[in-house]
Amino acid sequence: MEIGLNSVRALERPWAQAVRQDSTLLRQISNAIEGPFHLIHPDSFAANLESFQTILKQRNVSGHVYFGKKANKAGAWLREVAKLDGSVDVASVPEFVHALANGICGSNIGVTGAAKSDDLLWLSCRHKATVAIDALDELERAISIAKYSVPLQILLRVLPPHAPNSRFGLNQADLDTALKRCAESREYVIMNGYSFHLDGYAVAPRAELALALIDRCLEARKQGFPSAAISIGGGFACHYIDEQDWHSFLEAMDPSQFHAGKTFNHFYPYYQSPTGAAMLDAVLQSPATTGTLASRLADAQIQLYLEPGRALLDGAGMTVFPVQGYKQNDKHGIVTVAGISMSLSEQWKNSEFLPAPFLVQHGEARPQNPVSAAIGGSSCMEYDVLTWRKINFPAPPRYGDHIIYPNTAGYQMDKNESEFHQLALPRKIVVTEDNERFTWRIDR
Length: 444
Known about the structure:
single chain, 444 residues, alpha/beta, Lyase, Ornithine Decarboxylase, Chain A, domain 1, TIM Barrel, 2 domains, ten-stranded mixed sheet, disordered N terminus
């Protein structure tokens, strides 16, 4: 029997509700995997990607939606990107090769991140990928490598004006120098525009900087550069819970609600608005001196690139932990699950994953005596806790049950995973619907 928990209720897609209510399916997978596992749903990812692509078309803006691959390394997403003629953003040689192996054309690969290796720049040249240049020395290496290949498409990454201490991006002096070097090396590098990435999830700063970069692109064209693209990076918002639950949680939050009186300084904003493709639409419809950002891009014939990661994975995955044990302390219980918190928790942000998990009860019926409990991993470390918050369970969890964390595809599955204790990393299981039944396979 499956029971939902209402501490901070997770927003779920229909597929997710159906899968977690299919105890036979969960037991089949659990028997084969023998440990925690992640369920991923490519159809939800594809729907998210199409929603972004649709907004670009509706606003008459040419461009590319790049899946920010760092958000989840499953191969199944890449096949959906290829089917929809989407693009992928990578930051390493293995990510680049994985994208190629799953059918992504090199011209649909964007390369971002910190200083790139020579091997990554070489691959980018050979496969006609677009590279966001982050520093002058990186530009020099790119020019040298391109001399023995084909011209490299580049964007110049701009240091955000409101983040002068960021370690990413070129300041004004470096931009001027970079343009000069691009002019001197036209046969080796093609300066096709500018890129940036902003922290946070606000609409206005993205629109403002994009508008400013349109003017930069037009100025660069006077110097003979194509300068036909602007990348506004990632940071597209998601909401995991409804607005009332979010505000109620923040207002009522108290250390007594957490195991060991744990406190946190911040949480990911689990409710936000606008989100996903609606946020992109808000950016595009932001007012300009004349018209909107969308109309200015169209008039200037400048493409818009964007790199959603988490927002393309919203609603597309969940994580399942087998219960290994339960014990009762003086005032609350502790559930121990197979696996460790690094396969899910927000420890990497010194925070807590707030959408409440679900308990799926297996085996013989038991008395439904409610308990509250935190959820810990199976390592010997005191801090190995998946959920410090005391979750209200309808009955004491027991060995063989499952605890399901909803909506974990965006970063939660990959960001902090570890083989501590020589425990295998959780496998990713692709679930698809066939004649109103779910089938599954291990992700490649």
